[in-house]
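TICKET: design request
STATUS: open
ATTACHED STRUCTURE:
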């Protein structure tokens, strides 16, 4: 399902699970906290696997095998195979290419991403 056009520096490949179908008006994605900076805030993925092919040849892979309408909470995460407790990813990692793997659950994990040092830079001053 990837589509590449001459004007598009980014293509997306999505492995979609029928159980992970997005409901009307429901949107979840990783997004920048501040558009002038490249840090990405993390939210629950809707699809089991997404690959973002950046124009510079770097890929961002997002994996969430348990993605479903019921599993709306992040129970844990890994960045390039290492445990990740922050609710955001810094620019230096995003620019190198990254594999984000999420463990999802149907109940919130209040311990994940909640310590002051786990909050995005602009939010824990």
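STATUS: resolved
RESOLUTION: sequence designed for all positions
ATTACHED SEQUENCE:
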């Amino acid at each position: 399902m990837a589509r590449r056009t001459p004007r598009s520096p980014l293509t997306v490949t999505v492995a979609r699970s029928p159980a992970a179908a997005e409901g009307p008006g429901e949107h979840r994605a990783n997004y920048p906290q501040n558009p002038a900076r490249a840090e990405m805030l993390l939210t629950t993925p809707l699809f089991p696997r997404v690959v973002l092919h950046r124009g510079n040849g770097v890929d961002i892979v997002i994996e969430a095998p348990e993605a479903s309408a019921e599993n709306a909470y992040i129970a844990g995460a890994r960045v390039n195979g290492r445990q990740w407790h922050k609710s955001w990813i810094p620019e230096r990692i995003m620019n190198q290419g990254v594999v984000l793997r999420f463990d999802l659950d149907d109940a919130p994990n209040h311990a994940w991403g909640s310590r002051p040092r786990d909050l995005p830079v602009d939010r824990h001053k």
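CLOSING REMARK: The mean pLDDT is 76. The two ends are 42 Å apart (CA to CA).
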